[in-house]
Amino acid sequence: MNAPAAPKDPEKRRDSFYIIKNKDIFGSEMEDGRGIQYLYQSDERLVNSAQITGGITDETELGLLRTVKGFKELVHSIGVSAETGNPVDNVEFIFQMYGKNDIYGGGTNLKICVNGDGAEKKIYLSDASWTDDDFIPDQIKVIMEKAGKTAKLNVRLYLNDGFTAPEINEKNEINFNSEDYKNIIKNSLVSKGDLTKLKTVTDKAKSGEDVTLAYIGGSITQGAGATPINTECYAYKSYQLFKEKFGKGNNVHLIKAGVGGTPSELGMIRFERDVLRNYTVKPDIIVIEFAVNDEGDETKGDCYESLVRKALNLPYKPAIILLFSVFANDENLQERMIPVGYNYNLPMVSIKNAVTPQFYKKPGEGKVLTKNQFFYDIYHPSDAGHTIMADCLMYLMEQAVNIKNTSTGTEDADMAVLPAPVIGNTFENVKLLDKKDTYSGARIIPGGFADTDTVLQCVEIDESLRLIPQFPYNWHYNGKETDKPYFEMKINCKALVLVFKDSGETDAAKADIYVDGQYVRTADPYINGWVHCNPIIIINESSSNVHLVHIEIAKADYDKKFTILGFGYVQ
Prior knowledge:
The structure is a single chain. By secondary structure, the chain is α+β, with helices and mostly antiparallel strands. The chain has helices at residues 45-52, 59-64, 68-74, 179-187, 196-206, 219-222, 234-246, 264-274, 302-312, 334-343, 351-359, 371-374, 383-402; strands at 16-26, 28-29, 35-40, 75-83, 90-99, 109-115, 121-124, 134-144, 150-159, 189-191, 211-217, 252-258, 285-289, 319-324, 348-350, 431-433, 442-445, 458-460, 467-469, 475-477, 486-502, 511-515, 518-523, 532-553, 562-570. The strands form five sheets. Strands 16, 17, 20, 21, 22, 23, 24 and 25 form an eight-stranded antiparallel β-sheet that branches. Strands 10-15-14-13-11-12 form a six-stranded mixed β-sheet, sandwiched between helices. It contains 13 helices and 25 strands.
């Protein structure tokens, strides 16, 4: 999959307004065979577009659009998207500033290339090399690979802090009650699997018994792209739909355990802590969502299947649902994960199957939404996207209500012994080890890692907006204990995962890892470049043995900082 191992959380949501929205573009022939259309913005055209298309009434903001100096003061970035009917088409967008002395050659050209799939990309004004001759925003050029091609163009201006624009609610432009929309939702169902457990849970909720829905995944499960993140996210919305459909009073409860930028390699370690709440909660339904995060899974599926089996092995046998999100480039890892679902006869829901065919339909062919409407950015869904995800999950749950028999005869997941894994189950019994959750088979000598880091990745859990730090019971090297720049642990295990803090800070150290005196790898907090939790495997053997793990700060970094967030171990 063409995706980052740890996609960052979405950037701050900014007020924005369209200056061009769903505008038909036609590429007139150029000398080299490409197509071009000019869209002039001078002579009050840009101001009029801001008023008519963007709904801007503030005279100060309108005035700033008349000069490059004002434009730079008002605009943070420019979002551009194009739909051509072919997702691999390249469309070049150029916003040309005219010069005061050299009109056509003295100004800055703001450029970006987008694909014809409707996904928005941004030009950040802070990245531009501005000229001293910049005078007025003027000419937009749209260049297509071949003459005669058409496209629909969207351009919107994201505003700097201190400026406001009318809210853009593209969700209101989608007909959620149409038959075409209902077909989108139906297309999300990969497999019903064995619905008997879901049927049991819906019946339990309707009878007034307490029912808990739990969700574990990456930033999409955390709610990234939704505003507000706690009540517009798919997890909360699907929980609310379930509650309204099946609940009585307040007998339906929510556990939301999404952590941005992290794969199932970390999810399996924090499962007991974040989903089961250290075995104080017994979720009735567990939704697992890692289809766009697991590019960072070193095992290419073993960790994912280990997490699924960990959930299936719970003695009270909750209903497990596999959910496959999608990136704006139409990619996810569901082809790797679907065989896992079939192996255990699990219900599976694919957002990729639901929405991706939609993005390339033409008006009149059942088109309901654009890629720009579904996505907040290239990784995360918008409010509308989260609504669609919730509706897809609810559609699955409604299938359970309609089944007549409570037994299918194929209840593999209820067997005392699960079927053999299709990828692997190396980490099925992985447990968390940190300063709080200890392990009798581990003896720790913290060395210079005696401090505790408080600058951690924080996430919103459940229904709350309160940020909860991840792995607060950690071992931190603060750059001062330079006479002891190491951490040691003697541990009895057959597999061991180190979880350390990634960082974008300038004072972060690299750490070399040794097992039984042999160099294994270096933990580099700059690989991903932002504060989040990074798991890496340092031991993976067929049987348990006592190992000496030595983690030492790289010699050049003795005066810098490094944090061991915890370990996942398999006995």
